[in-house]
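Why do we care about 3D structure at all? Because function follows from shape, and shape follows, mostly, from sequence. That is the central idea of this module. The next example makes it concrete: a single protein chain, its amino acid sequence, and then its structure expressed as tokens.
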Amino acid sequence: MSKPLRIGMIGYGFMGRAHSNAYRRVNNFFSLDYTPVLTAVCGRDSEKVQAFADTWGYESIETDWQQLISRDDIDLIDIGVPNHLHHDIAIAAAENGKMVLCEKPLAMNVDEAQEMTEAIEKAGVANMVWFNYRRVPAIALAKQVIDEGRIGRPFHFRATYLQDWTIAEDVPQGGAALWRLDANVAGSGVTGDLLAHSIDTAMWLNGPITKVVARTETFVKQRQHIETGKVEPVTIDDACMFLAEFANGSLGTFESTRYARGRKNYNTFELNGEDGSIVFDLEDPQYLGFFEYTQLQSGKKIEDHLSGWRKIHVTNFEHPYMDHWWVPGCTIGYEHTFVHALADFLKGLETGEPAQPNFRTALATQRVCDAVLESAHNGQWVSIDPFAATA
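And the structure:
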């Protein structure tokens, strides 16, 4: 018999919708021991949060997250609010014995992330961070290809994450819609918002990053703050480029900006190895590019005279997650990545094998983000202990 898992959602914006959709749909497509129950949603504006609750089917609302966390009828706290609130909510939830799911980036900085991770681990509560792009079937297939040894020794990892929505100088900063442009709320700009995804994916596929050197730029230096009405300095990074060294000896290049005209959510990566390469583009997410240089025959690597790029349509039942959806050839989309992440988390509760990435893993990503910003500030290479965040 299915066990109810009573959800307390904090936040009713973009991520609140994405997560709520996952809670409502996961048991329709995955056979699981746990069934999420939308028990309560929390937000400061009672009228708006009630409208959200009515739309998504939450049983009740709260306007104070501390009240939500203290409720006995809540098993899991989902943190879908701006970054500056993650720290206090996560620690309080853990201390109250609640499971915790948190949006990325984990925190404003590595000190906060460390405190959050220690609190979570001290409480021994189940936890996960919503780095949902791991659950794109094509990216999960890339992980499988790498683990099967088909790429061989890695040489290069290159990632881009490009958008264009902040180019206009009259776009304000702050407030419910534009908090990502306010450093006091977001912590950083594209580094924490976009490159955190790229870094998590890179380290999942290619191992720890040990060293970075970075350059950031803020193209529009001042913007009106939507809450104060005053023109204030912009202190987030509009663009970031950095070089990286991985523990396995490969090199990485990462680029992110919100000033790439025509790019809406252009999230790509390519990994080149001795025996092959893989390439992915989130704006064409149902495909994985794969170049196979050698094939294994009778225990030996043989150069293939038919080697070339394959464009794999990742919709067959043998592909990651796809046996839960439609027939081969029918694609799925962005919202399904959250369903997959939640399904993995719930399966982890059943099996005792915790789903990744958890807070400890997200702390490792936070260490890289902080090192990137430190390097951009001082213009020097910054080393990162690959074991500091995983021991």
